[in-house]
Amino acid sequence: MRGGDAVVHALEKEGVRYISGFAGGGEAPLWPALRASQQITVFSARHERMGVEIADGYARATGQVGVALTGTGPGATNTLTGIAGAYADNIPVLLLMGQHPLGSMGREIQQEVPSSIFDSFVKWKGTMSRIEDIPAIMRRAFTNLRSGSPGPVVLEMPQDVLMQEAPDEILNYEPVGPGRRAAPDAGDIERAADILLNARFPIMNVGGGVLAAEAWDEVMELAELMAMPVASTLVGKGAFPENHPLSVGGGVYPKSRYASGASYLVNRKADAVLAVGNSFRLPNATDGRPIPEGVSLIHINADSGDLNKIYQADVPILADAKLALRSLIDAVRDRMGPGGPPSAANREEIVAEIGEARAKWIGEWEETFNDPSTPTNGYRVVQELLKVVDLDRTIALHDAGGSRGYVSPFWPATRPRNYISMGGMAAMGWSMAAAIGVKLGRPDHLVFNVLGDASFGMVGMELETAVRMGLPTLTVVLNNGGTGGGLMAMSRDNAAPPTMAELGGNFSLVAQGLGAYSERVEDPADLQDAFRRAIAATENGQAALVEVTIRPMPTPETPEDWTL
Question: DSSP alpha helices (H): ranges in 164-303?
Answer without folding.
Answer: 168-171, 186-198, 208-213, 216-226, 261-269
